[in-house]
Design a protein that fits this description.
By secondary structure, the chain is an alpha/beta fold. The chain has a single domain (about 5-240), classed as Rossmann fold, CATH 3.40.50.1360. It contains 7 helices and 10 strands. The strands form 2 sheets. A 7-stranded parallel sheet has the order 1-10-9-6-2-3-5, with helices on one face. The protein has a 3-stranded antiparallel sheet with strand order 4-8-7. Helix 1 crosses helix 2.
Length: about 250
């Protein structure tokens, strides 16, 4: 436990992913006892693969009562680019289970400012219950990199210039072969937009994230490491495995 953030460490990625999926499933089912629909935001990153793989196999989830969103998207990729976050999630979850609705950020729009407003209005229409996210190598959540993160951001969705570390992470994750292929701009849900959710489940594997995890749990809460804000959130849960947790002492 770090302030409000509940920290769980597992032996390996598989165990971590299964535990996170089981907890998210239980949360969904509990919420559906209280309301007719649940609204969820998903992260698109290889770090989420184990979690998503187990989640979509759960036959007890009433997917037809869930509305789905994603938290960020590149600007300027081709519509069918596999690196586009909407396509990533479409392949791993959005097309695998029968959601009531799926709401995509349009990274190909000719009017990015209008797209921010459109998606922001969607998020106001559907009060978010659950966010499933990761943490970037530079401590970002969604694409709120340290240079652009704002804990008091007035916007729901904004356009950002991507930090070099964020772009390099996409190469490290083998999403792109070379740095110059990674877009320089993206849409992101802002930090207040993510924190409005009642529950946050944060899944973070691999040695590449160990320093970010140490900073998240040990550093002062500030935009210098955006993920530190998770320590202020009730019903926030962090899932690690032994490599991502290798620099912390719990």
């Amino acid at each position: 436990m770090r302030e409000q953030l509940q920290v769980n460490v597992f032996q390996d990625r598989k165990t971590m992913g299964r535990a996170a999926a089981n907890d998210v499933s239980a949360c969904i089912k509990q919420l559906l006892k209280q309301k007719s629909e649940v609204n969820m935001i998903f992260a698109a990153a290889p770090s989420q693969d184990d979690f998503l793989r187990y989640l979509v196999k759960d036959p007890s989830i009433s997917w037809d009562r869930i509305n789905a969103f994603h938290m960020d998207e590149y600007i300027g990729l081709d519509k069918d680019a596999p690196q586009a976050f909407g396509n990533f999630l479409k392949e791993r979850i959005f097309d695998k289970v029968p959601f009531k609705s799926v709401h995509y950020i349009d990274g190909t729009t000719s009017d990015p400012e209008d797209e921010c407003n459109r998606y922001g209005n969607k998020l106001k229409q559907y009060k978010v219950d659950i966010v499933c996210l990761g943490i970037g190598e530079n401590g970002h959540i969604a694409f709120n990199d340290p240079p652009v993160a704002d804990f008091n951001d007035p916007y729901q969705v904004k356009i950002v210039n991507l930090d070099h570390a964020s772009r390099q992470q996409q190469v490290n994750d083998k999403c792109f072969m070379h740095l110059d292929e990674v877009p320089q701009k993206a849409f992101t849900l802002t930090i207040p937009s993510l924190l409005k959710a009642d529950y946050l489940f944060c899944i973070v594997p691999t040695k590449l994230k160990a320093e970010a995890i140490r900073n998240t749990l040990k550093n002062p809460i500030s935009e210098a490491c955006p993920a530190t804000i998770l320590r202020t959130k009730n019903n926030a849960f962090l899932y690690l495995e032994k490599e991502s947790a290798s620099l912390i002492d719990l």
